[in-house]
Design brief:
The chain is mainly alpha-helical and 273 residues long. 46% of the residues lie in helices and 10% in strands. The protein is built from 9 helices and 5 strands; from the N terminus they run H-E-E-H-H-E-H-E-H-E-H-H-H-H. The chain is elongated, with a radius of gyration of 26 Å. The relative contact order is 0.09.
Length: 273
């Protein structure tokens, strides 16, 4: 697990600020292993130096620890302007889903995360995970639940995704990098509100293939007009057709490429539901 976490730290973008925590009922005063930092070497040294004393791995207090983590993330962003990269807040934790000693409830834990705009990414580790509360924490806060029944599954999530090249990052880092955050000014007052944003991903390669065929046809039309001119023939119709068609399909190809590279096309202003 430590090796997988070390690789996870290496795979994160250099601009990400990371902190490391541990939690159990005998460690309530300071769960921090390493404070927020962009120094990967410092984070890895802190993790490698960390050890749990024998007999000091008491009962689980998942909810209290998650609330603690959310508060630390909020404090780290104190004074930072909103609507920038600092607004992307994620808390990843490993648990079997059984909280046996927290003072806070599941509902209080979720409220603490949503009020601080922290997305929760629980990893259910083991064969007998109580997944229901972990899934609720993830879906309610906009995060994602990952199941890791075995150590190999945990490695795939943190260190190297199964089926990918050996130097590829784990699944969690890959998916976090792919996320898009949409923000806009709301007329609602402060607090938590639910919105519905739908996106459709339909055969993105099909329109690109169509544009490729159209551009090829436009190129052939231009060659045909040039051949006629080389023969000394009039090619007024062919030149007009080639210019008109090339401009039309060229603009459409650019539009489709922009949509494909941005991953999502918003055709109308986002509105609350």
């Amino acid at each position: 697990m430590v090796t997988a976490t070390l690789d996870f730290i290496d795979d994160t973008p250099d601009s990400w600020r990371l902190a490391l925590m541990e939690y159990h009922d005998r460690q309530q005063t300071d769960r921090l292993i390493h404070n927020f930092s962009t120094s990967k070497d410092s984070l890895k040294e802190g993790l490698q130096a960390f050890q749990v004393p024998i007999g000091d791995n008491g009962a689980s207090e998942v909810y209290d620890a998650v609330i603690d983590g959310c508060k630390r993330i909020e404090n780290e962003d104190a004074g930072t302007l909103s609507f920038d990269d600092a607004d992307v807040r994620a808390l990843i934790f490993i648990s079997d889903g059984r909280d046996t000693s927290s003072i806070a409830s599941l509902e209080e834990c979720i409220t603490a995360a949503t009020d601080r705009r922290v997305r929760l990414y629980p990893i259910g580790f083991g064969q007998t995970v109580n997944a229901a509360p972990l899934i609720q924490m993830a879906t309610t806060t906009g995060g994602h639940y990952y199941a890791a029944p075995t150590a190999a599954d945990l490695v795939s999530l943190l260190q190297n995704e199964e089926g990918q090249p050996s130097n590829a990052p784990g699944r969690i880092v890959t998916e976090l990098k792919r996320q898009i955050v949409l923000t806009y000014i709301s007329l609602f007052q402060e607090g938590s509100h639910n919105y519905l944003i739908s996106a459709e991903y339909q055969g993105i390669t099909f329109p690109l293939a169509e544009s490729a065929m159209q551009l090829h046809a436009a190129h052939l039309m231009g060659l045909n007009a040039a051949t006629l001119l080389d023969r000394g023939e009039r090619a007024i119709k062919e030149l007009s057709m080639a210019k008109c068609y090339a401009v039309e399909v060229g603009l459409e190809a650019v539009n489709r490429a922009m949509q494909a590279l941005s991953l999502i096309h918003i055709s109308e202003p986002t509105r609350p539901y």
